[in-house]
Amino acid sequence: MTVQPFPNYIAGTWVAGCDSAPNINPSDLNDTIGHYAMASAIDTFQAIEAASNAVESWSRSTSLVRAEALDKIGTEIVARKDELGDMLAREEGKTLREATAEAHRAGSLFKYFAQDAFRETVSGFRSIRDNVELEVRREPIGVVGVITPWNFPLAIPAWKIAPALAYGNTVVFKPAELVPGSAWMLSDIISRAGLPEGVFNLVMGHGRDVGQAIVDHPDVAGVSFTGSTAVGRKIGAALFQRGARMQLEMGGKNPLIVLDDADLDLAVECAVQGAYFSTGQRCTASSRLIVTRGIHDAFIDAMTNRLSDLKVGDARDLQTQMGPVVSAEQLDIDKTYIEIGRSEGAELIHGGMRPENTPNGYYLAPTLFASSSNEMRINREEIFGPIASVQCVGSYDEALHIANDTDYGLSGGIITTDINRQRHFRDHAQVGMVQINLPTAGMDFHAPFTGKKGSSYGPPEKGGYAREFFTAAKVVHEGRG
Ligand code: NAD
Questions:
Q1: What is the CATH number for 191?
Q2: Of 273, 387, 260, 279, which Cα lies nearest the Cα of 334?
Q3: 180 ligand 1 Cβ < 6 A
Q4: Could you tell me which of 388, 432, 93 has the C-alpha nearest to residue 251?
């Protein structure tokens, strides 16, 4: 019996792609989760046409209609968070606990933007002229392309799709190739929320054809992208060429500073969570641990002890604290960087190889380098795996200088009991998001998400800031003469 691949969703109908691809569990390579459609550029054009045809009526729908649809989606996601979390853990390798929390967060995001649909979209000004009324309206931009990475396959699509729909745009959603299962389940829920045909479309497939077709199409008014800096810059150039809007969230090389006066247990917990949870595959992961000399040796000892206890295994085993790497390709990249770190002279003090007694998947032990310097490639380039490196410094000033000496600027953290240093870091860290006595990863769902330098381009995502990208201002002067 041939099993039909999970289809794409175009113009209110589930349609087969031109091809399909298997979805393999990285925790257990014998487990094929299913086969998922791969769209062609032509399928993508059809999705864009459907979204384009739906813009006029959806943009004029009432906020009540939009809010009720989004609330319905959010409610179903929360109710089914265990099922969604299980799919996420199974196809991406994040632990079940993290995956279920992400599913819950995706539901909360839809519920947040359901309410935000009611927020004021017209603001008044007093004109400087007599008998002139002045107002600024916020209008939807039209068809929005949503292109997402594999590492947060529910939360990131949710925080793009929900505001896009809340403010009256229509959506063409292209998830990452490695995580079609979560995207399909999310789209299935959205497809049953009563949205008119064409308002939401799912096209699964490769970046080079489906993604590029979205980026290049003149009817796509803007693209909200999250992914690597290399791809983000490439598509950014293409979007600029044709005058389309863009919101690009990209890579990170996030510093976590640990000062002599830090609570050692807290510092280790924040470093372990920030660097290794979600297998280090987070744009906000603490890959650079910058530690002052007085606490350095104790920190290294405590880190190696803690990492030895970290249980690596099948993402869906409840004992597991760190799951596998997402794919063979990513595992090769991780191993290459471990060799680069060694050859650059950093000292490998933990991990670097496959842990013992792990199943047939892409496993790598949590890996820690010491004696590293900020010039080394392991401290300059985003690795995106369970690999962090420690740099020993003489002072807070030196730590701050190193923290800011990077092409990226997403998240930055400091562990210290000194309130003056906390505030100084808050004011001088060249990042979009500061974490004080907390891991560099882990943001509230209703707060904005943003970075500086090579990490972000365009308006912030989430929270009240989301309106900036997904709507355009229109200024109206009205004579009352
Ligand atoms: P990626 O850049 O390889 O792919 C991201 C998405 O872009 C995928 O859907 C992919 O298919 C698509 N794509 C690839 N080429 C394309 C093209 N030419 N045109 C259009 N679309 C194209 O990233 P990834 O490997 O999926 O994710 C990991 C990266 O994402 C890391 O760099 C990580 O830091 C970053 N990330 C950033 C944030 C953030 O908010 N800053 C959050 C999560 C992940």
A1: 3.40.605.10
A2: 387
A3: no
A4: 432
- For the question of residue 270 being annotated catalytic, the response is no
Q: CA nearest 247: which of 166, 168, 141?
A: 141
CB-side exposure of 134: number of CA atoms within 13 Å? 8
**Residue 310 sits in the same domain as residue 367:** yes
Catalytic residue among 76, 91, 283, 392: 283
Which residues in the chain show pLDDT less than 50? none
Q: Which domain holds residue 131?
A: 8-250+455-479
Residue 118: φ, ψ to 5°: -85, -15
Q: Are both 324 and 208 inside the same structural domain?
A: no
The confidence score (pLDDT) of residue 130 equals 94
Report angle CA 209, 213, 218 to the nearest 5 degrees: 170
User: Is 18 among the residues known to form the active site?
Assistant: no
- Indicate the SS3 state at residue 134: strand
The CA 331 to ligand 1 mean position distance, Å, reads 17
Same structural domain, 346 and 395: yes
Q: How many domains would you assign to the chain?
A: 2
What tokens does 198 get? Answer: 């064409």
SS3 content of the chain, % helix, strand, coil (to 5): 40, 25, 35
Could you tell me if 23 and 169 lie in one domain? yes
pLDDT of residue 51: 98
Taking only the tens place, the pLDDT of each residue in 403-416 is 999 999 999 999 99
Pocket lining: 152 vs ligand 1, CB cutoff 6 Å: yes
Instruction: Give the span between the Cα atoms of 327 and 324, in whole angstroms.
Output: 8
337: closest CA among 383, 368, 379, 376? Answer: 383
**pTM, full prediction:** 0.97
**Whole-number pLDDT of residue 17:** 87
- Cβ(460)–Cβ(248) under 8 Å? no
**pLDDT score, position 2:** 65
- In this predicted structure, what is the pLDDT of residue 121? 79
Determine the Cα–Cα distance for residues 293 and 92; give it in Å rounded to an integer: 38
Question: How do residues 31-84 score in pLDDT, each as one tens digit?
Answer: 999 999 999 999 999 999 999 999 999 999 999 999 999 999 999 999 999 999
